[in-house]
Every structure is written in structure tokens, then in C-alpha cells.
């Protein structure tokens, strides 16, 4: 999962990397971010698997991770949820419910 990769990067390479996480089960929505152009939860998003040689199956594919669009960024992948309008918060909640439940 992308969240596991971010935790590994934070612990082994860059301790200043900042992102939100909580339940790691796709329930709370705190790890919502833009991954490869789609707003999704990092704890539910898979990373492209590797082949038997340890290389990515599609060598041109790179996982691109950005904070949620149209929101102020506090730091790295952390959006400022306090500056959201209520309609934006409701829209994000509906999006996360759609991603989690599927309807």
C-alpha cells in the first residue's frame, strides 16, 4: 500500500516527510491524497507489483503522490482542513464514502 511506502520513507530516508494517517483500514479518511491523478486513500491504494526480477512490470510507471487538490497545504501531504468550507468537507466525505463503500 502507498501508506506503508510513505511510512517506510519517513522512517528510513526522510524523517521530515509529513502526512496524516490514523486507522490504516480505509475508515477514517485521514490519509486521503492525490495518487497518480486520483483522489484516494493511501491505506487502500496498491503500488504497482514487481516481477520475479524485482523490477516494476511497467518501467515507465512512477507513483506520483500529491496533497488533495484545491486545498491549502500545511506541509508536504497535509491539507489544511480548518480552512475548508462546509460544502468542501461534505464533498470530501461523500467522495471517501464512495471510495470505501463503492456507491
Describe the structure.
It is a single chain. With 103 residues, the chain is an alpha+beta fold. It is 26% helix and 15% strand. The protein has two helices and five strands, in the order αβββββα. The chain has helices at residues 2-12, 86-101, and strands spanning 32-35, 38-41, 65-66, 73-75, 78-79. The chain has a three-stranded antiparallel sheet. The protein has a two-stranded antiparallel sheet with strand order 4-5.
Would you count the extended β strands for me?
Answer: 5
Low-pLDDT ranges: none
Strand order of the largest sheet: 2-1-3
Largest sheet: 3 strands, antiparallel
Determine the structural class based on helices, strands and strand pairing. alpha+beta
On the 0 to 100 scale, the average pLDDT is: 82
Give a quick rundown of the structure.
By secondary structure, this protein is an alpha+beta fold. Helix content is 26%, strand content 15%. The protein has a 3-stranded antiparallel sheet.
Topology:
Layout lengths: L1 H11 L19 E4 L2 E4 L23 E2 L6 E3 L2 E2 L6 H16 L2
Antiparallel strand pairs: 1-2, 1-3, 4-5
Amino acid at each position: 500500500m502507498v501508506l506503508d511506502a510513505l511510512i517506510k520513507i519517513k522512517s528510513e530516508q526522510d524523517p521530515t516527510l509529513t502526512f496524516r494517517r490514523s486507522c490504516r483500514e480505509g475508515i477514517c479518511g485521514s490519509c486521503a491524497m492525490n495518487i497518480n491523478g486520483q483522489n484516494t486513500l493511501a491505506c487502500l491504494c496498491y503500488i504497482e507489483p514487481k516481477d520475479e526480477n524485482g523490477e516494476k512490470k511497467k518501467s515507465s510507471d512512477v507513483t506520483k503522490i500529491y496533497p488533495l487538490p484545491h486545498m491549502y497545504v500545511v506541509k508536504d501531504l497535509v491539507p489544511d482542513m480548518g480552512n475548508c468550507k462546509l460544502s468542501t468537507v461534505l464533498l470530501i466525505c461523500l467522495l471517501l464514502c464512495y471510495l470505501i463503500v463503492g456507491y
